C-alpha cells in the first residue's frame, strides 16, 4: 500500500544532500579569494591545519553520501560507505567544535582558567560522543533494494547518536555563553565595528548550529529510522561555513546567507522534480518495510498492535505487475463516474459524508459472509465428538486474544485460493482482524493466481486485516536446474520474513503460525490450534486427502513419518483399522479413535507451528546441497551410504525440531545445575569416553544389545525388514516406481557406518512434540467433502468416550526413532523429479556434537 510519506522520504533525503553539496560549493566560490589572501600565505599552525580539515573534509563525506543515493550498491557496500560517512562526520564536527573552542580561548585573551575549562569540556563531550558514534555504526543494517532501485535502503538504525548531538549542544551552548559574557564586558567599553561584527556573527552562527542540533535530536525520536541521519550532512555543511577572519579564518558573510539558501532551495526543487525515477522505486520499496518503534515509543510503552488504521505499513503488496491493464482506462472511468454521480453529490457536509462509510460497512458485512460453502456448509460436515455442533466450542481461543500468523505459498494453484481467502475471512470474523497477519507468497504462478491476489488484497484491505502479498520469480529459469527441496525452503523462508521483521522491529510475538494448504474448514483449524496449545506442541498437522479413481487416499507421504520413522500408508479414507495411514501400533490405535497421535515428522495439509519452539529459536527451512544438477555436464557424485538425506525441507525442519528440543532440555538442566555451556559440552563429550572403545570383534554383541534395548522400549529395530508390503512404495510423484529403479528394487539394509561408535539413544532426550490431528481434513478442488467426512468419521454420533480436554491431550511422548525412511531427491528436475528411498540412521546425540 503506497502512501505520500515514503515518497516524501525517498525524495527528501537525496534532495537535502544535493542542497548541502550546493551550499558547500557555493560557499567555496564565495570565499576562495579571501582564503587565498589570508590563509595560504601564512605559515602552517594548529589553527591552519584545523581550518583546512574543517574546510575540505565535508566535501568528502557529503559527496560520498550523495553518490550512495545514485549508485546501485549491495547492502555490504552501503554499510561500509555509511560507516565511513559517520566517522568522517564525527571528525568534521570535532574539528568545528575545536575551532570554536580556540576562537573562544582567543576572545578570552588566552586565560589559563578558560583553557582548563575548555579542555575539560572537550574531554566530557568528545570521549562519550566517540563511544556513541561507535555504537551507532554497529546498529546500522541495510537491506537489498532490488535491481530497479538506486541507492541504499536502510533496514535498521539505532538512535543512540542523539546523545552525541546533545553533548555537542551542551558544548556549543557553553561556548555561546562564554562568548556572550565576553561580548557584554567588551562592548560596554568599546563598540569597534569589527568587534561588534565578530561577536554578532558568532552568536548568530550559534543559533543556526543550535537549531540543526535540536533537529538532529528530535528527528530520530519522532521520525522513522530512515530519517535518522537526515540532517547530519546539513550540520556538517553549516559547521564548515564559519571562519574567523582575524584568526586566519573566514566568516560566512551575512549578505550571502540569503543567496546560499536560495541556491539550496533551487537545488532541492531540481532534485525533487527532475530526478524522481529512482526515488519512486525506492518509495515503492520503502512502503513495504515494517517501521520500527521510535525513541519515545521504546522509552514509554511501544505499540505492539496490528492496527492497520494506525500503522498503514502493515498492509503491503510487493512484486505487483505495475504495467497498465488492458481495460485499465475503462475501470478508472467507471470509478470516477460512480464517485461523481452517486457519492460526491450527497456529501455536502460532514453530516452527509457518512454515506460513504455506510457503503464500506455494508461491503464489509458482505465480505465477512464470503463464500457460502465455508461459512454455511463447513459446519454441516460430520466430525467426531460433535465438534461442529457446538457454536461456542472455540470461544476460549477468542478470549485468549492471541496473535496468529497465517502463511500461504502459492504456485499456480488458483483452484483453491478463493476458498483459502474465505477461510481467512471467517477466521478474522471469529478471532478479530487485529489478531491475524497474512503472509501470501506467489511463487511465479503462471495461471490466474496473480489476478486472484489482487482480489485478496482488496478484500483484506477493506476488512482491515494486516497482510503482505508478495510475488517473486523462480530461483531457476531452466526447469532442469530446479531443485525442489531448495526452492521449497526458499519459498517458506520468504513467507516468514514478516514474522521475523515484526518481532525485531516492533516486538510483536505471534503465538502460532498457521500454514494453509489446500482447503481446510475454519473449525478444523480452530481445533488444531486448540490441540497445539493444550499439548504445548511444536507442530500439529492435519491430514491431506486427495481423490483418486473415485475414492479418497492419503496423499502427502513424502514428508510424513510415523513415530517409528516409517512412511504413512497410501490408505483409503474407508480403510479398516489394520490398514490406516500410520503404521505404528499406538498411532494406528489413536487414529482409529480420531485422537491426535505423535509422529516423527508431518506436514500433511494445513498445519500449526509454535514459533517459540522453532522460528524464534533460529530454526529456518533448509535443504541438502550436494545434489546432482542435470543441467550441467558434471558426473553423478558418489555419496556415502550414511550421507545426509536429500529429502524435503519439511523433513529437515522436523529433524531440527527434535535436535532443538533436546538441546533446550540440556540447557535447562545446565541452568539449574549452574553449569556453563563449555562445561556442558565437555560433559556430553565425556559420555562416550567413560567406557573403553569396543574391539571390532565385539561389534555383533553391540548390535545385539542395541536390538534388545529397542525391543525393550517397544520399538522396532531399525535394521529389521519392513512388515508392510508397501512400506517403501512411493505415491504420486513422491518416489520412483520400483520398476524404474536400476538394479534391485529392494531397500538397502540399514548399516552402521562405524560399528564401534557409541552414542546416547534418542529415547533419553526430550521429545519434540509433533502431532497429527486426524480430525483436521485438508482437501482440494473437486473433492466431495461430505462423502470424505462420512468415510472418515461415519455419522459422528456416539463419540462420547473422550470428554472435555481428553480428546486433545496426548499423555505419553516417545523419543525420536533411531532411523527413518529417507525418500530423497538426488537430482534436479523440479517437483516431480525422480526420488529414491533408503533407511537412514538418526542420532540426536551425534547432531548435538556437531
From TrEMBL:
Residues 695-729 have a biased composition (Low complexity). Pfam families: CAP59_mtransfer, DUF6533. The chain crosses the membrane at residues 12-32, 44-64, 84-102, 114-135, 155-181, 202-223. This is Glycosyltransferase family 69 protein. Residues 17-60 form the DUF6533 domain. Keywords: Membrane, Transmembrane, Transmembrane helix. It comes from Favolaschia claudopus. The keyword Transferase does not apply. Residues 735-745 have a biased composition (Acidic residues). Residues 670-679 have a biased composition (Basic and acidic residues). Residues 670-757, 825-850 are annotated as: Disordered. It comes from the Eukaryota. The keyword Lipid metabolism does not apply. InterPro entries: DUF6533, Mannosyltransferase_CMT1.
